[in-house]
Specification:
The complex is a heterotrimer of chains A (about 300), B (about 350) and C (about 250).
Chain A lengths: L2 H32 L6 H18 L4 H29 L4 H23 L15 E4 L2 E4 H23 L1 H11 L1 H6 L4 H23 L9 H16 L4 H21 L2 H18 L13
Antiparallel strand pairs in A: 1-2
Helix pairs in contact in A: 1-5, 1-8, 1-9, 1-10, 2-3, 2-4, 2-8, 2-9, 3-4, 3-8, 5-6, 9-10, 9-11, 10-11
Chain B lengths: L14 H23 L3 H27 L8 H17 L8 H22 L4 H21 L11 E2 L5 E2 L3 E2 L3 H24 L1 H11 L1 H6 L4 H27 L1 E2 L6 H13 L6 H20 L4 H14 L5 H16 L2 H5 L1
Antiparallel strand pairs in B: 1-4, 2-3
Helix pairs in contact in B: 1-2, 2-6, 2-9, 2-10, 2-11, 3-4, 3-9, 4-9, 6-7, 7-9, 10-11
Chain C lengths: L1 E10 L2 E11 L4 E5 L6 H9 L6 E6 L2 E2 L5 H6 L2 E4 L11 H10 L9 H11 L1 H4 L11 H15 L3 E5 L7 H16 L4 E4 L3 H7 L2 E6 L2 E7 H5 L2 H8 L13
Parallel strand pairs in C: 3-8, 3-9, 6-7, 7-8
Antiparallel strand pairs in C: 1-2, 1-4, 4-5, 9-10
The chains are: A mainly alpha (about 300), B mainly alpha (about 350), C alpha/beta (about 250).
Amino acid sequence: MTFATFLVQVLNGLTIAAIYILLASGLTIVFGLQGIVNCAHGFFYMLGAYLTLTVVGKLGLSFWVALPVAFLANFLLGAALEIAGIRKLTSWGREFTHNLILTLGFALVGQEAVKLIWGTIPQLMNVPSSLTGMATFGPVSYPKYWLFVIAFTGLVMLALYLFFTRTGLGILVRSIALNSEVSQSLGTNAPRINTLIFGVGTGVAGMAGVLAGPILSVDPNMAFELLIIIFVVIIFGGLGSLVGVVVSGIIIGLIIAFGTALVTGMFAKILAFAVMIAILIVKPLGLFGRGAQLE
Amino acid sequence: MEDTTNNYSSPEIDRGKMVKWILILGVLSLLPAFFQATPFADYLAYTVVRMMILGIYAMSYDLLFGFTGIFSYGHATFWGCGAYAVAILTVRSGLQVQDALPGVLAALIAGAGLGLAMGFLCSRVGQVAVFLVSFAFTESIQLLVISDPLKITNAEDGISGIPRETLFGFLDIKSEIHFYYLTLAVLVLSYLVLRRITASSMGDVFLAIRENPVRVRFLGYSIRRYRVAAFMISGAFASLAGALTALHERAVAPEMFNWFHSGDAVLFTVLGSPGTLLGPVLGAAIVVIFQEILSDLFRNWMIFLGLSYILLIFFLPKGIFPLFEKLQDRLRKKENTPAKPQKA
Amino acid sequence: MLELKGIHTYYGESHILQGIHLQVKEGECVALLGPNGMGKTTTLRTVMGLTPARLGTVLFKERDITHYPPFEIARLGIGFVPEDRGLFGDLTVVENLKVPFLNLRQRQGRRWAEVEDRIYALFPVLSERKKQMAGTLSGGEQQMLATARGLISGEEMVLLDEPTEGLAPRVIQNLIGAFRKIMEQKHTMLLVEQNIHTAMEIANRCYILEKGRIKIEEPMSVLCQRPDLLHQYLGIVQTIDSPSVNR
């Protein structure tokens, strides 16, 4: 493998990692905060992609309009799910398995609804015109759009980091993740913040769908296909850890990229699973896991 | 915390229940005769066999989830494992095995083995992680089967032409009717064995782990070992169900490792009331009936699957057994009230 | 200011509080005494809405707050210092203090600097540890931080659960000094204590809770003169000289 090819594979790994990280971050943050796994996360990802098809394809608007639209639509829908479903179950003191089943049911209904509205044939999404073509630096040529995806994810992660460490709301969120009861006894409106963060998580998932559209095709299996790898990413990185998601996302993205290039895509996936299993044997909580905490 | 668990493990069998059982068994045994009277004999027999196989599958999951409190989403592993064990042994191994027994035994062993592996992994991680890890585990197995590194699974095409001739060398199970009785026998036997296990002291530990793991640990039991044991037993029975399906359909495919089958196990058990063993069997039957009706009417019947999850969680969090209890209470009340005016 | 009427609280099916009546007037420091496991912590949790009462009423300034969610109760100006301190271990001292501050209802009139100054005046040690992770503080410092947090959100009243538990005597004296200063600033306190000496140093009145019921209600000075009560309910054998607590 030449250096140029190696570099391309690294970039491939980072691009894949970017999508994984965007998706996994929302999932892991919600877990750290509320102790639940949102099985519908993949559905929000799917919805973002399909909405873009309509916004760009049917309505003729720019890709750049699709991003915030996807975020907003998913934010609202996610918040609705949280208020109508998850909050109720939590207030009734149900175990987390019930929330899991609820979100699963929601995802199934949502997936079928998307199929009904948009059809079942996989569709293509075009790269926005401002980002077509390759960027060349030295011996390496790489699609501009993919570089953009990496950069965008980096920005989002930076924004999240700043939010959690520098803003007041970020401190409150972290306090809820550490000890929700005590935080509430100090005046924190945890239910409202939980809903907000849940919505942000699903909104980001929607954006991930928009970004992934031109790279992977837009098809009705999107919702659950990727979810499994995302689960691997968050277990590997440690449930509730944002740092863990970034690190494990990058590692797994690289594994997938190099594995696919050197052997086959399937081998790559199996390798990723094997790595996760190996880590779990040694460190059952994942790389950065420390119980339900938000880092 | 709202109590959504059931405690129905009553070890004693009393007279009244015996009579009920004999009746139910009698009906089930005579069903094929009824079916012959209709024009859909084969279809009906086929469907009921499917229900019974899924009933065994559901019971096996109940042991894991309902009794031991392990929310695994990887039961499809065993379903596919048992099926492929039979398929590989009879078709791909070159051993010319025609009897069903070796395949079934292989399935049981393989199921217990995978249960050991999955149990080992899952017993080390927290509750939420078990869901995710078991899910990922199933996916890995499915990928392995599709990629077929040892060239025994026939990759995506699956294996067909599984023989179904005899059991134990002399019992003929070729026809649908004979297979029906075989499945019924296996269902009853499985239930009795599982009931015995849940009523035993091991079963008590399982229940205790579900309710209060910390306490169990303080009492000196190794939670890890018991969880692994639960996985192994559960895996063996689920594999048994998978093996029966392989014999029934006479073909297997990698789709059997699809996470939908894991979801089905959960649905049967949650609907049928976890921790009752029989409830999930009923749950399986109900779901099969609905699936048959709905899939003919709607292409997007999965919407109903999703809706049923949501409705279950909100309205029937303990499954259907509490409804039976309410019904029993109401019947008992009706028996009591007429007596009163006579005393005056 | 605070009144509990006929409070019955359960943990699951355990009937912990069996008809509690209690009052805290403005500017008072009331101690809730009694042996362990009798429901003292549960009483505070009931007021705070963390373990809501099944029967009875909690009145705060004439308002029925019995079924308010905890964050609403906190925002009414009731601060809470839990028994295990409940610090956010992975947040810094300043961040811990910010949590109640950010939730204050009328923040416009207040600046963080003023709040900080007030807190550091009471607990100078904390100002030296601003950026330190709360989980790495010493026991006494942790208690000070927890109390400071409770003070920030408890502009009207503070509930403290065993604040001197597990601390060295010198640290306890420090803490008591801080509590005295707080009371001088016309604060109101409801204090749960197992340590009678601490309670005597700052409380005006006390209640003794046994098996979920209030058995005794007396001014502190009176209780100190009653060795029979001290022995019967608190297991204290020696007589105690009442310190000069003037109010």
